[in-house]
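Action item from last week, closing it out:
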Amino acid sequence: MSFSVVIVAAGGGTRAGPGLAKQWRAVAGKTVLRWSVDSLLQAGAREIVVVVGPDGEALADAALAGLSGWRTAAGGATRALSVQAGLKAIAGPADEPVLVHDAARPFVTAAHVAALLTALETADGAIPALPVADTLKREGPDGLTTTPREGLWRAQTPQAFRRDRLLAAYAAWTEGEPTDDAQVVEAHGGRVAIAPGDPRLMKLTYPEDFDMAERLAGGARMTRMGQGFDAHRWGPGEAVWLCGVRIDHDQTLIGHSDADAGLHALTDAILGAIGEGDIGDHFPPTDMKWKGASSDLFLEHAAGLVAAKGGRIINVDVTLICERPKIKPHRQAMRARLAAILDLPIDRVSVKATTTEGMGFTGRGEGLAAQAIAVVEM
């Protein structure tokens, strides 16, 4: 079923502590907003409108770099006005389902979306909700009294509606600022269904909530590995590039670019870890644009793809296989160069070298080979 999304990200989030508003802060290396946008796009959202405050457009561009299928809209002075601005910015069928989601709830999943859309088929609105489990107390003039919890639910987001139905309900709303969108539809005579809620759909409000979110995000992330291999033959020359470092030598490696086998193997390892093919897919040797190009560009590109997917490189390990030149005198410079390109601490970068004891094409001095492993957290 086709659906669109409005994500409300215009608030100041002051209760979360000083600094950036909570939707722009990072959880497990990814902004709170990006967690939701990533998941909702993967769940099949046709269009996502992110409603932002006065300075939010640039922040959204940075937070969602590399993603498509979303755009921003200017928010209003209240959440209700921001929701209406987002609804009006959507281009599509008036009766298309729309999910309204708080940016401060980062852990929405495709399963949540599917349950909401199913519940919406026989109702005017659908919300994820959890039954109240704690004992409720109400403070009055004479102290505390216990409030029965039977039939009480904790409403979450995203909440699902037909877009024209929700806009009509807001147009008729006269009771001040609503606490959620379902309240507006209820007041307009609509029936709101309950879909299964999830404790992980928590709203980040206070500083301690971010500690809990980090723990939850850690369990939701996956460690992936990729390997790469490259080889080039020797030819006439006076220097060779290996792992981004120029080494004076009586030969050079022959290739379409600078033939840096170490960087090529590592680029392929990173691309492999994220399922993005190999270096030839991104930089075809038939394209003269890359003739003699520095292989730094290839490695930077692969690292950028990892970041665009919301991942991060954990560590890399490169092994150079050759009889000459001697690698050990240059190994620390190579590690430093790789660390700089990948923005990693140097203790997460390894460069090693070995020979094949005179055997094979490397042993005979016909060429040089490199292999690499990259570990990426997604």
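Closing note: Residues 4-220 form a domain with the Spore Coat Polysaccharide Biosynthesis Protein SpsA; Chain A fold (CATH 3.90.550.10).
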